[in-house]
Structures are given as structure tokens and as C-alpha cells.
Amino acid sequence: MRFAPAWGGFNRMGQLKRAHTKWVVTASVLALTSGISHLAYAQDLEPTSVGEIIVTAQKREQSIRDVPIAVSALSAENLDSMKIEGGSELLRAIPNVTFSKSNFSMYNFAIRGIGTKALSAASDPAVAVSFNNTPLLRNRLFESEYLDVSRVEVLRGPQGTLYGRNATAGVVNMLPNLPRPDFEALAKAEAGNYGTLRGQAMINIPLTDTFWVRAAGSITSRDGFDHNTFKDEDVNGRELWSTRLSAAWEPTDRFRANLLWEHFEEDDDRLRTGKQLCTRAPSMTRIGSTDIPAETQGRFSQGCLPGSLYDDAAYSAPNGAGMAQMFMLNSISLGFKPPLPGEFFGEGVGAVNPAIDPYAGVTQSKNLREIATAYDPRYVATNDVVQLNLELDINEKLRLYSQTAYSKDEFWATQDYARYMSNEIFNSSDGLQDLFGNPMIGGPAPDGYYTDPQLGASRRMESVDLSQSDNRQWYQEFRLQSDLDGRFNFILGTNYLDFKTQDDYYVFNNTFNYLAEYFYGRVIPGQLDKIETRKCTDGSVDECIYVDYSSIDNLAGDGHNYFRSKNEVHTQSWAVFGEGYWDIGDNKRLTIGLRYTDDTKTTTPYPSQLLLGSLDALGFGPLSGGSSVRGYPADPEVKQSWEALTGRAVFDWKPVDGLMLYASYSRGYKGGGTNPPRAGINQQVVQYQPLAESFEPEYVNAFEFGSKFLNSTGSFGLNVTAFYYDYTDYQVSQIVDRISLNENFDATSAGVEFEAIWRPTPNFRMDANVGFLKTQIGEGEGSIDVMNRTQGNEDWLVVRPWVQVPSNCIAPKHMVEAIYAHPITNSLQSYALSALCGGSKRIGSFSPDFPADAIIYQYDFWTGLEYNPLTDAPNGGRGFEADISGNELPNAPRWTVNIGAQYTWHFSGSELTLRGDYYRQADSYFRVYNTEYDEIRGWDNVNLAATWEFPERNLAVQAYVKNLFDDAPIVDAFTNSDDSMLTTNVFTLDPRLWGVSLTKRF
Prior knowledge:
The chain is mostly beta strands.
């Protein structure tokens, strides 16, 4: 056994053996991922040997062939050879791995079908992402480009013993190069299509024999991949830079210290998501024998249907006729047109026309790289990591490690919510009269332009979102490691994590602000010939909904004229762990590890306040259903704690030289959390569908069997791994009530992985990895599909609610027919339909247990039908559960494959290497329901690279093409909320990229 350094760089004392290598980019990435090769050629190996790489997957130095774990390790040269420039592209080098950006501020990196499908400030990633062995809960390692990397290690399967909480799916560990005792430097410049310019530089300086420093930096600039057809300009570009400073001090043979700081920054017009798709859902014109009036036909359309994302129909826009804000806007009187001859009064004009659909006739380009928006996106992110590593040799047999790290991550990104344009909807307030023929003064929409404080002036419905995150993390680990002469060695350790996060998600829509100013905030009583808003700040005079007039760039954040989901979570976790290694016989070894984890999460819930206000005298808003006027009052803190005992047992055996067999059992754990707070609706005023406020931790029992083989000549290697996972309470989320509702399901995952390398001649090599996967949700599991709430039950209808209530509901068809059949309820049909989703003191109720304020709105009195959706409808009116037993987990394709080949020609003073890689993944689903709508079709990718090297000059020129055929597959998707009409954001690959680089080493 060898001690492992606390960092991934050079150890002067010889603890890390480094073979002298040519500086070339010729070896196979997958040779490394198979755990059976080193990228560069070692001088002491046979000409056709695939070589060796040293890893610290078990926090001690071992040949990757001796590690009884499914681990892949990629060197810097290896990453460059395959043009893997960041963590998002690792899927091309590792079996059974998928990656996609998420809808908000993070990403989903999935291993063996297990990823981060729970979206909440209180949720944790299933794949532990580490920087130089430090776990980082929020990071930019999948957005930044690799800089001066020693290697990237990816461990598949639960790794909770040594890597701690949230490693149920595996670990991605990025290990940087750190200071060395010899001078070296590097400069690299690259140019490519889309105006791409890249630069990297590194310098390593030994200031004394025992103190060395290293600095590295990179910068990238490129134009946008996507085209905004409305403004005829490109968007989705990148402007980012990174720097790393580090110092190493080794004053004695017994003590070593290392300090580093890494900074990442981005400020550009990148889009968080791709295009937004929708298969338009029609309005309902007739129920049974009842004709539905035009004004409420849209109330039975959910906006978008669950059609295939690959049909042409998916490039429509939603049916917006059922949006409650459209009905409310029409009720805002702007005045009257001048009467025509013979008329006493002119035609009344509302803020919008009756039964208006803002998206009527709107279609989209079928090019996934084209959007249409008047709003310029912006993406800003900064990340800092400071890390201190200390090593002390207590004696020749024991070494003590200390790792201290602090990280700070800030994120701010805004973009058009829909990324397609609505029709012009606002009526002009010019040239109108009051009831007595006097000209109206001060209308809200001169020439049809309404001015929103955040979005500016527009004739269209404009909607923009903003995702913002602020994170701080402190981490400390102590570890004692042995190097005994006998058959037993051990690792003992303890660590502590303190993580604070605040996530904010905003949606701005000018129709919301219009309602806040002129529906709820209009000066009444006032002059009949004048329209003005109160701009209230409290509810002392009347019910008030506060309007924030600050800009998005400098947002006060206390307005109720927009949606804000504010989430604060403080996570504290400590653990003790140990692992023992017994050589129990010739070529046999037993590993036993245990870990005790104590997690505490404290969540401060801040209910959202969209269009909610209050009247001071009552303490609530009788019109809006709110309880506050301004700001976001916090509910009581929610404190959750869990304890978990996890670990692993591994037996490995080397029956002959070059072959290792192993079997393992491991137990993994990931903490639970709270679901984001819902709307702050006062339930004394409005009935509100119940939802779970928290979700459970997830646990996994994992079994793995594997073999690692290298033939006697070292020219062929094959790794085979079979695994079976049994999950309890796997966490998955969907958007319900404008929040991420996290649910728990039991599930299994099983599969086989093959990794191979073949080097028949010194100049030619091939490599491949193949993964087969079958995931399955447990028996008896169910969930409400927001895209299909009725589950085909013809006696129930989907109904759209009032504007403050976020989610659609289902209602009995006979209740809907009764509303249209009675003259009273028919005259109040829009209000009465809303009452089917939840009774309201102001707009009515069908339940005598929840009476309306006025008898006219007590609909059970008129129809003779009592109905309480919270007790009389399935799941409180949310809908019928879909049976998801046996369905596949999201983002779990049945198979993935990568095949690579390269050949090197040797010339006088130079070498030319050509490499090609082909990657493909099978069909998968992006939700647990596995419907036609959820399908993600299989896709592939081809990449080529040519590298011409001049070893004596330490010079290399490389040309590459990525995504050779310029494909634009959908790689993941996200379903938006009911009140945004159940549209779907999709994610795709980067387009075809080519570039040429020049690298010089000194």
C-alpha cells in the first residue's frame, strides 16, 4: 500500500511514481477509462503495451487495474485527444453516463440511470462532484473548461464510505496539476468557427528547493450558437475565464503543505435552456349537449397536449385563451369609443379583447437553434474555491491528512420565458371617453403600449424569468492512513460540511403588472375620466398589492407584481468513517468500510406572493386571498435531521497475472429535504389543493461483480462489470403549483459494462466502452401526471383556475354542465368554474362548509349541487394517479456505446496522429410516466482530431471537428407549470464545431 497525497499533483518525496512520457496527444481516452492504460507511452514498456495509470479512487495510490471499483481515469492529454473540454462531455468516455443542463441553475449528471432529478434548494446531487478530493455541492465544474488538469476520475456506483453523503450514484473528481520542483510553462492559442477564440497559459516556478508556485489561466470567447429571428441576431454565446494560483511547501521529508485558489467567471448571452415546444391543446366548444360560450371555451384547455416532441405539431404555441389573467384584463375598463351615429354609448374597451388568445395562429421555426424574442438573455456566474492541504508523517507507518476548503458560488441568469412572440394584445387607451363623453386622461396603454417596470413598453404579452443563486460552503476533513508491513492497513477519518444557499427564481409578465396596477390598484373612487394606479405601499386604506418599480438588473425583490420563489437552506453534516484492507491469502483481499453520517437541514420557507395583497384592518386580502402587502414574510423554520450508517464490503482475487475478479456490496444514502414553499394564499379566503411539504431521504443497496484483464503482452485489455441497485425512495421532481414537487419512488437499476483497449501495433490502437442498462420503478408506485390529470376518465374534465391559484384541477363533468344550465351560474360562469378548483370567499363556492361572502356566489344554493374539491375529487382535485410501476427512470438509456480509433505516422522530427470517435445512446425518457411525450430518441455524435507534434521543439498543432454531421438531437426536456400552459423546454447538443490550436511547452 502507498500513501496518497492530499492533492492530485506532484509529490517531490516520491510518493507518486510518474513515468516519463512523450508530450503527445496520441493515446486513447478509453484506454484510460477502461482502467488499463496511460495515455502517453512509457519508456520502460513494450512497444505495444497499453501502459498504466496511478489513481487515488480509494484515497490511496493504486494502479487503476488494482482498484476493485468501476473507475475511469482520464489524463489531460487524454481529454484533449477526444476534445472533452468540460465535464458535460464526459459521457463520451464513460459507459452508462448521461448529462444535461437543468432548467434553473444546475445540471443532471447521471451514472447508471441515477442522477439529480430532484429540484430544490434542499435537494442534493446524487453524483458527488469533487475538486481535488473536496466535495462541492454547488460548482461550475460542468460549465467551466478544463484548465491545467492532472486527470479526471469517475467512480461508478455508491462511494459513501470515503466520499461521503450524496455519492449514491458515484463520484466525479477533478484533480488539477499543482506545483512541482522543476520549471515548466505552456502557452496555447485556438481559433475556430462561431468566432471562437481560446487561450491557455501555465507557468510553474520553483522559488526554492522546498517552495514552488504555479499559475494557470484560460479565456474563451465565441459567438452565439442560436439565432434570434425577431431581432435577427445570434445569441447563446460565451465569454468566460478561469485562473488558478497554487503554492506547495515541503520543508522536511515528514511535512507537506499545499494551498490553491481557483476562480471562474462568466458574463455573456448564454441561454440556460433551449427552445420551448408545445403541441397546442384546443379549446372545448361543447360538453355533452351544452354549447360553451366563447368567453370560457379556453378554460378547458391546458394549453399544450402531451404529444411527441418530434412531431411537427410540437412547434406550435400554447392555447392561451384560458389564462385567467386574460379574463381579468378584459374586465379593466379603459373607457368607451366615441358613439356611432344613433348610439347613446360607444363600445366599451377593456385592456384586452374578450376571449383573447395571445398565441392564436403563432407557430415556430422547426429549427431547434432558432428562437424569437425581443429580450436579450444574460448569463453571469462566478465561483471561487480556496483549498489548504496538509500532510504529516507521524512515523514511517502512519500519515495524517488535513483538507480545508471554502467555496463561494454566485449565479444570475435571465432570458425570455417562452422564446417565441405573442400577438399584440393590449388595446390602446387613446381617444376614449368616459360615460358622459369626456375624454379619458392618463390611460395605461397609449397607442397600445403598456409599460412594465421590469420589461419595458410592449404591445405584446412579454414574459421573462430570472434564476439566481448564492452559495457558501466550508469543508474540513481529517484522515489517518496506515502503511503497515503486515496483511492489514486502514484509513480512519472524520469530516464536517457547512453549506448555505439561497436560490431565487422569478417570473415577470407584463399582464401580472397590468393587473396589479389597474385591476387591484386602480384609484376607486376617482375621476370617471381618469385612470390611475394608487402605487400603494400598505393596506391601510384599501387592499394593496405592492408593485416593485426597480429594474431586473437592480431588483429590490419585494414586489407582488411578479412571481418569486425564495429558498434558503442551511445544511450541516458531520461524519466519521473508516476502511480496512486485509490480505487474506495469496492474491486475495478483503475490504470493509463503514461510515456514520449525521445531517441537519434548516429551511426557511418564504411563500410566493404573486398578485397577493392584504387589507390591514382584516389582516388578509378579501379580493386577492393574500396575507401581506409587500415583501416575502417567512414561515417558521423547518429543521430536519437524519442519521445514516453506510459502508461497503469488497472481495477481490487475482487468480493469474493480469486478471482481477471482484465482488462488492455497498450501501448508499442521500438526504431528504423540504419542497419549495407554495403561494402564500390565505386558506381562510381561498381553498388550496394540499401538497407534501417535504421528501424523504433515498437509500440504495448496490451489488457489483467485475473483472479487469490485461494480456501478457499488454496489448489488449478488457474490463467487465455487472451491477444491481435496489433503491428505496429515489427522488424525482416535477413542477406543481409553480414549485418543484419532489416525490419518492422505489426503483431498481441493473446492467453490464464493457471497456476494452487493443493496441496490435505501436502505431495503431482501438478502444471502446459499451453499457447496457435496465431501470425499473417499483410495483405499486404512482404519481399525478400534470400533462394527463384525468388519465382518460371521461367523467372528469381539466379546468383552469383563478389567477392566484397556480395549478389546474379536475372537475366532474356534470358539475360543469350544471354551471352552464342555470342562468345565475351561467352569468357568472368564469367565477363558478374557478370554484371547481377551490372555493373562494369572493368569487364563490359550491360547499356550504366554505361559504362565499355573498349569496349570489354560493353556487350550491342555485344549482342544488354541493361540491368540495378538496374532499370530493381525487387527490384534492389534483387528478388521478398514473400507475408508473415498471416504468424506466428518467435519463436512463438502455445502452450507450463509444468506439474510438487512432493511428500515428512517424516522420523525421515529427509525428502525425489521426483519431476518430463515435458515440451513441439509445432511446430514453425525461419523466417517470414513459409516455410518447416523454420519449427522448436515441442520438449519436462523431468527432475527429488530427495532431501534428514536434517533440524536439515541444510544439503541437491540432485540428478538430466536433459533431461532424451538425446534428441537433433533443438530449433532455423539462415540463413547465400549469399556469405557463405546460410548455416544454428542450436541451440539445452544440452544433458542429471546428478549430485549430497551437501549443508550445517550455
